[in-house]
Amino acid sequence: MKILLVDDEPLELENLKSILLSFDPLLEIFTAENGMAAWSQLEKHQIDIVCLDIRMPGWDGIEILKRIKNKWPHLKVMLVSAYGEFQYAQEAIASGASAYILKPVVPEEFIEAFKKMCQEIEWMRSEYSFILQTAVESWLQDETNEEYVNFLNLPIQPSVVVVVKIKSETQPEKEKWDAAFCEGLEKTISVPHPIKGHWVYLMESKESETHEITEKLSFLKMFLSERFQGVEWIFGVGEVVHSPADLKRSFYSAIQDTQNKDEAIIQKCFDYLSANYASSITLNDLAKSVHISASHLSRIFKNNLGVTFVDVLTKIRIERAKGLLENKDLSIQFISNHVGFSSPDYFSSTFRKLEGISPSQYRLKKDGRHPCL
After folding, report:
1. What residue stretches are annotated with the HTH araC/xylS-type domain (predicted)?
2. Which residue pairs from 8-15 have beta carbons closer than 8 angstroms and sit at least 24 positions apart in sequence?
3. How many helices, marked H, and strands, marked E, lie in the chain?
């Protein structure tokens, strides 16, 4: 559970923090001395509960509460005030506060209000999967319910549907699969249960084309094959839409995409490149491995991924190199040769072009140090 305490008095912050940690030492507690600092913390962390002092310079507690409820309607907020006037409590409750307590804070009262909010959060989480499933199924049946959209308060604005079809008898544990799948992508949430035999994922994308998403998924598939061995699967990317009401169109185009023969060819290419990236590979070598002409394969890469064969091979080599760079005992020259580059200089210039930093700087960054770029 992540808690944000907001008060312009440092001693009061320490007091509230001490009370909470005495109740549960595992709580993750953040602090802020004013409204602006609090807003910055809220945007950086997925806070569960906010405890606000009412009287602060700049934005007061009521103002912050209203802003929070406008952006994160279901975030739990407790207001604390040294003033017992009834109008403060009235305005706090009207603005959506879950609790209102007075200073000096009585630890037992504070913990009791905190426990109540925690129980409400647990109930919300237990119901969330059902509501999300119901909402998505209604969207995909062209029956979008705006109440569901508002209630869910999704962390993304879904604009693309991605589907996964498990083809092997070996079925991964969906919860672990979903966590790994969403971790490998940005702004993606999983739908708890299959729909029409497909595992469904909602993505937020600013791209009007799906080439970039397809490329990311192709790389993700390559890496997930190492983690979930024996699982055979294909994916489909739907068209980009502009509202939940149009997700049905994206969903069915994603299913259609799973039936696209080009995706199967691309996957065979990724498998071949993943196994042979350290060798000197040409487009002709790759084309022979999938039994089509080099010109046809070149068109498949361009039409489906928006990149060339060389772009894909280079990115695979760089991704492999990033893993090796975490081993400080391996020299840059060794890594360069190991992943198939003709020279360390070419490797370094290519790495910088794709990653924005040199291999040495990347190694320092992963080691916890921050080089001057």
Report:
1. 267-365
2. 8/33, 8/34, 8/53, 8/56, 8/57, 9/53, 12/53, 12/103, 12/105, 15/105
3. 16, 9
| Residue 131 in domain | no
Mean pLDDT across the stretch 3-22? 91
Task: For residue range 43-91, list pLDDT tens digits in order.
Answer: 888 788 999 888 777 777 788 888 888 777 778 888 888 766 556 666 6
The SS3 assignment for 305 reads helix
Question: What is the C-alpha separation between 254 and 247, in angstroms, rounded?
Answer: 10
Cβ burial, residue 128 (10 Å; 0-12/13-18/19+): middle
Domain that holds residue 44: 2-124
Number of independent structural domains in the chain: 1
Other beta carbons within 10 angstroms of residue 64's beta carbon come to 27
Burial 216-240 (b: 16+ CB within 10 A, else e): bbbbbbbebbeebeebebbbbbbbb
Q: Which two tokens stand for residue 300?
A: 């498949």
Dihedral sign of CA atoms 105, 79, 1, 36 in order: negative
How many beta carbons lie within 10 A of that of residue 132, not counting itself?
Answer: 20
Q: SS3 sequence, 113-131?
A: HHHHHHHHHHHHHHHHHHH
33 domain residue, yes or no: yes
Q: Residues 314-368: pLDDT tens digits?
A: 999 999 999 899 888 899 999 999 999 989 999 999 999 999 999 999 988 876 5
What proportions of the chain, in percent to the nearest 5, are helix, strand and coil?
A: 55, 15, 30
In a domain, 69, yes or no: yes
Give residue-wise pLDDT tens across range 228-240. Answer: 888 888 888 998 8
Residue 168 lies in a domain: no
- What number of other Cβ atoms are within 10 A of residue 200's Cβ? 25
> Which of 318, 337, 329, 327 has its CA nearest to residue 366?
327
CATH of the domain at 92: 3.40.50.2300
